[in-house]
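Action item from last meeting closed. Structure (334 res):
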């Protein structure tokens, strides 16, 4: 099933380059004037089509690959704990583009790569600590684009997210399509993703039959989870569930275990990445005494999805399909 879903995602990602559609070549994109985009609520003008883009993290990198823009890339940075990259729809992109760093981007490796644009996000590369910010890069003559899922929203010093997560995905694909002159390819991807998601939604439980879901990223003293502006919010919703942390006006954030116990999720989704394996995270959840009577733990309804499924990325629709299939196995009344 996983290989079949990946094959479907590959066909969707290749809509403009395979599957019988007209090819748009990114290298032919030569707009006669500058392009102005809305990014994180601000108007940003780009004077030329970037030719040496550097990206930070897997979801951001795969947005470029899904649009066929690897020839416009000078490299990417990401830790090597984000899953097996040999069996993903964009394997060719990883084979072609230089892996610059297994840590976050720095000014030094961006300059070494002679980057003319950095595509990253707040807490996905951009950070005030050390001055690796769009403003700091601008002083070096390097343009930036900020992942929309990560935009600061003004609800606190670090709160992130300004629109529903899938809208953020579509906004970034649309913006990148305009910037690189591959609008048709971006539109085809978005249309394919929306159809794939609609097909899952049509089969999903409705009303009171929707199971409640808690996203567990990491943490034992306090869990790191997803509020309503992180990708899992709509992955869970479109799959037929309800995110128990929907009321948090943030993307990725920390909560207390008491709030998880109080909300008593029917299902727990583990974000699989990092030094602690999904199996180790599951063992912790099943053995942690305060969670003993939580429905998801009592009935051992715990499923793992890859990190790249759960951050803004072109893998989100296939993650919705896989989670949707699982949630349909949860019995009514739970």
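Sequence:
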């Amino acid at each position: 099933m996983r290989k079949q879903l990946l094959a479907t995602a590959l066909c969707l990602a290749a809509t403009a380059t395979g599957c019988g559609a007209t090819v748009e070549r990114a290298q032919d994109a030569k707009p006669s004037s500058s392009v102005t985009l809305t990014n994180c609520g601000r108007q940003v003008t780009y004077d030329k089509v970037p030719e040496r883009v550097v990206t930070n993290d897997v979801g951001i990198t795969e947005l470029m690959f899904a649009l066929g823009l690897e020839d416009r890339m000078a490299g990417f940075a990401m830790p090597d704990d984000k899953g097996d990259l040999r069996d993903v729809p964009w394997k060719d992109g990883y084979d072609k583009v230089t892996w610059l760093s297994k840590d976050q981007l720095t000014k030094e490796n961006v300059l070494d790569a002679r980057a003319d644009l950095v595509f990253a996000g707040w807490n996905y590369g951009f950070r005030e600590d050390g001055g690796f910010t769009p403003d700091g890069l601008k002083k070096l003559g390097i343009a930036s684009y900020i992942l929309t899922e990560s935009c600061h929203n003004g609800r606190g010093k670090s709160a992130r997210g300004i629109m529903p997560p899938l809208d953020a995905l579509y906004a970034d694909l649309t913006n990148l399509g305009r910037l690189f002159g591959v609008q048709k390819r971006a539109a085809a991807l978005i249309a394919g993703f929306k159809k794939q998601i609609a097909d899952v939604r049509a089969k999903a439980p409705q009303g009171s039959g929707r199971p409640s879901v808690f996203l567990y990223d990491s943490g034992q003293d306090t869990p790191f989870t997803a509020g309503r502006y992180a990708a899992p919010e709509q992955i869970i919703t479109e799959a037929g569930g309800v995110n128990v942390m929907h009321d948090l006006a943030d993307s990725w954030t920390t909560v207390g275990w008491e709030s998880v116990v109080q909300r008593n999720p029917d299902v727990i989704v583990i974000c699989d990445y990092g030094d602690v394996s999904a199996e180790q995270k599951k063992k912790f959840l099943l053995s942690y005494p305060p969670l003993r009577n939580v429905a998801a733990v009592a009935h051992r309804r715990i499923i793992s999805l890859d990190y790249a499924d759960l951050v803004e990325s072109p893998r989100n629709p296939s993650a919705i399909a896989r989670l949707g299939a699982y949630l349909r196995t949860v019995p009514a009344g739970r």
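Note appended to the action item: Confidence is low (pLDDT under 50) at residues 1-23.
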